[in-house]
Amino acid sequence: MRDECIAYYRLIAGFLICLLAVGFSTGPAKASQDAGIVMQVSGTVTYSETGLKQVQKKVQAFMKFHTGDRIRMENDSKIELLFTTSGRRETWQGPEILMIESQKSSPSGKTAALSVETVPLSVAESIDQTPLPVPRAQVSRSGMITLRGDDGDKNISVLRGQLELGSQEKQDIKTAQEVYAKMKEKTGSGDLVPELYLLSVLSRYGQFREMEDLIKTMQIQAPDNSVVRRWRYMIAQNYPVRPEGFLLRADPACKKGQGCIELKGMGIFKKIGPFLFDNSNEVSARKGDILIFTLTSTAKSDHYTCLINIGTDGKQMILFPDLAGRSKGQIRAGESLDMFLEKGLGLSLELSGKESIRLFTGTRPVDQAYLSKSEGAGCKVDDDLRCLELVLNVK
């Protein structure tokens, strides 16, 4: 076992995905294979791998389970398993111990499953073959992602862009959308099998904009699903222009070499962050903190950017390009701009309440009048103009 980060690369529909997995060790392949995916889990549920019964690890939603796994359920628990090799879908109530076989599970006691259903095998296989990173995915077929460890993919980098599709690829997506619509007619609000199926198809064809909308829907249905949060983070991290925010917090005791910055006439501040704009999480801040930004291009062509502050009173202020002195907000391909160090631009948080920072980016200069009209719609924009938001809860 090596205590270091090792990069893995995989080409997916013209996109390079880099997974940084912590604590990976090389060695012979395990005999166990992916059998399916955990769709839902609640209560105390743990698992152990073949030959490692004493090592209990927490089960999480969207985690792959393998043949030979032993799943232990306590009294307060419930789990839903989708066997992607057969389409079999099982729901169990604890207490129980389940042994995972290739196409079903076997209970150690006499308990019967709460329900056993079947989803179309094509749907189950598509979910199994999704290029998106999920915890405990194995290389069970050529080119699939390798991901080790319970914490999943803490660091993901995707070189993004929207693929141009051929007629057959468009038809494949249309068919998947039709299957998805039919499945939604028969499923409840907490059932994410239809979404996971459509997402698997969209991800194979690199349709990141459609994936973004679908992931937002999934996060509303499953706000505590850490894998869905990481997928959303992954997409947000790879916008054509990626913004990051940092907080500078007064800290006289902060020492050099600990992320401290001395501001002339103001004292010593500790740099906290980064905070990625991802439209989902609020960042806790204190009155007196200073918010600073960096903008990094991840695109192969120039893009135009507008950064807007919506204060606690609802008033808008354009931070970039206006206050940064950058004509039309152009960010060149590969450019990285630290607006605090290079332009002296920071936002002092003086009032309690919600403070919002929105970044709009596109291939054309951003129409600021358009932004004022779309304020009520938040970050909902058009095909070219993309939006990310960072919300600060200032106390």
Description:
With 395 residues, the chain is of the alpha+beta class. The protein has a domain at 241-394. The protein is built from 7 helices and 25 strands. The strands form 5 sheets. Strands 14, 15, 16, 18, 22 and 23 form a 6-stranded antiparallel beta sheet that branches. Helix 2 runs antiparallel to helix 3 (193-204), helix 3 runs antiparallel to helix 4 (208-221) and helix 4 runs antiparallel to helix 5.
Topology:
Elements: E1 5-12, E2 15-22, E3 34-42, E4 45-48, E5 57-58, E6 64-66, E7 70-73, E8 78-83, E9 88-93, E10 96-100, E11 105-107, E12 115-118, H1 121-128, E13 155-158, H2 167-186, H3 193-204, H4 208-221, H5 226-237, E14 241-250, E15 260-263, E16 267-276, E17 282-285, E18 290-297, E19 303-310, E20 316-320, E21 330-331, E22 336-338, H6 339-343, E23 347-348, E24 353-362, H7 368-373, E25 386-394
Parallel strand pairs: 17-25
Antiparallel strand pairs: 1-2, 2-13, 3-6, 3-8, 4-5, 4-7, 7-10, 8-9, 9-12, 10-11, 14-16, 14-18, 15-16, 18-22, 18-23, 19-20, 19-21, 19-24, 24-25
Helix pairs in contact: 1-3, 2-3, 3-4, 4-5
Describe the largest sheet. 6 strands, antiparallel
| Residue-averaged pLDDT | 79
Shape: globular
Q: Output the radius of gyration.
A: 23 Å
Q: Tell me the distance between the termini.
A: 44 Å
Low-confidence stretches: 1-30, 139-161
Counted by DSSP, the helix tally is 7
- What class do helices, strands and sheet pairing give? alpha+beta
